[in-house]
Amino acid sequence: MPFERGPRRWTQTAATKGARMHDLDHGPALDRTTQLTRGLHWLLAAQGDALAAVLRGHQHDPAAAAAALRAPGPVWRSRTGHWVVAARAAAATALDHPGLAQPPLAGALSTVDVAARDAVLSGAPAEFDAADLAWRSAVAALGGDPADPEWAAAAPVLDAALAPPRPAVARALATSGVAPVAAAAARLGAALAADALALRLAGDGSDEAALLAAVHAGEPVVQLVLTTATTDVALAGEQVAPGESVVIALCAANRDPEGAGAPLLPGGPLAAPLAFAHAHAEAVLTALPESLRPTGPAVRASRAPVTRPLVRLPVAR
């Protein structure tokens, strides 16, 4: 069985811990792995594990979730099997630690297609879903067809590394032909643009750079950074062995009341997608008028604990 019961806790085995969709079969084995992993997250969340509560993908209060992630200490071991780094100082160390490696994102980003992006943005009607517009314009900017279902199928690539989606979604992701790095860039670009727009709609009159910084501080588009120790790693008095996974919880670290400074951002394989995300979000904020008004509630994706993007942001001119 992929879940083994020890003396006091459930733990994950290699069959489910950190499994990535492209690494698994596309049939019953994938379905079984995703279902069992999700079941474990719900079980451990019910037993009070703060990381499991986030990974299960249920809607939650971000401030309360961040506080719960920091409560056990700056670095602690979740019953999911992952180490959790939740304090700002420890997270800053972990992000730059040469002994912690992020999983690679295959592929390369193409030159931004500014004309295709701007065509999508300029075609918005009087009433529209700004989250959808941010997504379609991001796909177009990356040289893709916003109507191509392959892009939507690949969108959960970062979330699926820590929290497998429903079996049908997992199978679509595993067989998508979109490069993971491009899918990550589109997801992060759309998420950052939509969250910044939501702040503006709520009355934040800051300039584009300040809006983006505010998103990273409160609802970062990369909430959790999955890494693996490649050597013995010491973090805040804890010893992480080679091969063990470490989740850097930026959603908690960037809200740490004992921390200060600009929001922490991941580098490595996520650097290029985040650079695209910032440029895309600035383009969206510039293209859309500040007179936009909300026409309905904003809705976040479920089962997307790494990126937590807005999937609905209805607005009108």
SSE diagram, text form:
Blueprint: E1 3-5, E2 10-12, H1 28-46, H2 50-55, H3 62-70, E3 75-77, E4 83-85, H4 88-95, E5 100-101, H5 114-122, E6 127-129, H6 130-141, H7 149-154, H8 157-160, H9 167-175, H10 180-201, H11 208-218, E7 224-229, E8 233-235, E9 238-240, E10 245-249, H12 250-253, H13 271-287, E11 293-294, E12 299-300, E13 310-312, E14 314-316
Parallel strand pairs: 4-10
Antiparallel strand pairs: 1-2, 3-4, 5-7, 6-14, 7-10, 8-9, 11-14, 12-13
Helix pairs in contact: 1-9, 5-6, 6-10, 6-13, 10-11, 10-13
What report would you give on this structure?
With 317 residues, the chain is an alpha+beta fold. It contains 13 helices and 14 strands. A 5-stranded mixed beta sheet has the order 3-4-10-7-5. A hairpin with a 4-residue loop joins strand 1 (3-5) and strand 2 (10-12).
Output the keywords.
Cytochrome p450, Cyt_P450_sf, alpha+beta, heme binding, 5-stranded mixed beta sheet, oxidoreductase activity, acting on paired donors, with incorporation or reduction of molecular oxygen, monooxygenase activity, single chain, iron ion binding
